[in-house]
Amino acid sequence: MIVVTGATGQLGRLVIAALLKKVPAARIVAAVRNVEKAKDLAALGVQVRQADYTQPANWDAALKGADKVLLISSSEIGQRARQHKAVIDAAKRAGVKLLAYTSVLRADTSVLGLAGEHKETEAYLRASGVPAVLLRHGWYTENYTMGVPTALKLGAVYGCAGDGRISSATRADYAEADVAVLTADNQAGKVYELAGDTAFTLTELATEISRQSGKAIGYVNLPEADYKQALLGAGLPEPLAALLADSDTGVSKGALFDDGKQLSKLIGRATTPLAAAVAAMVK
Length: 283
Known about the structure:
Blueprint: E1 2-5, H1 10-19, E2 28-32, H2 39-43, E3 47-50, H3 59-62, E4 68-71, H4 80-94, E5 98-104, H5 115-128, E6 132-137, H6 142-145, H7 148-154, E7 156-159, H8 171-182, E8 191-194, H9 202-213, E9 218-221, H10 224-233, H11 238-252, H12 262-267, H13 274-279
Parallel strand pairs: 1-2, 1-4, 2-3, 4-5, 5-6, 6-8, 7-9
Helix pairs in contact: 1-8, 4-5, 10-11
């Protein structure tokens, strides 16, 4: 039995879809906060169990009979480590044979502010004694391509990443890699640094948007504080604005560049090119 947490999230749904190509639906458990949102998964034969990161008592039932667990990191900044610990504790009680955790690229040495909770989770996981594998995800290409419509409207891509290079891949790429590890043998103790094959700067992102849209799009590099204010002005909540601005500064320091190509080795193909991801957003 393979349990996927956060199974109705953006990554979780892609993981379930990839798992269904390799594992019978009856052997897959979608652990979700709201079971109503998982009716489509249940219709495919996937077991749906209610489990909320904020309710530790739920997890014993959610992980009952689990051989493997994919712990997809919580999206609740500042609460992640505590929430992850509840799942790890339940996994230990359940005697799972492998817990895979979606961490962040080079969590142990990363300068990114968001790496702190991942590093804390990794340490807790090691101390727990639960057999584990770390799936350290780099940036999702969608983190930038979701801003393509805004860039087209404003005539520019804004950020504070300087000339830093981003080795991103799509969520679908990461989901396939996660499933490749979940369905392989002898994974406990391994650490995967997962990132896209080809890196780009935000200037190159702007150039690609220009090429595909036929509109002149440039990159405007701002001081971190100014970029955070711009994000706040666009309606983003303060924690998310701060995280995105900090992450862009981290990009300028090389935090999201990686050329190890472990992701493409796992999925047996090249990662999705930036041009293809941009094309999906240029109307």
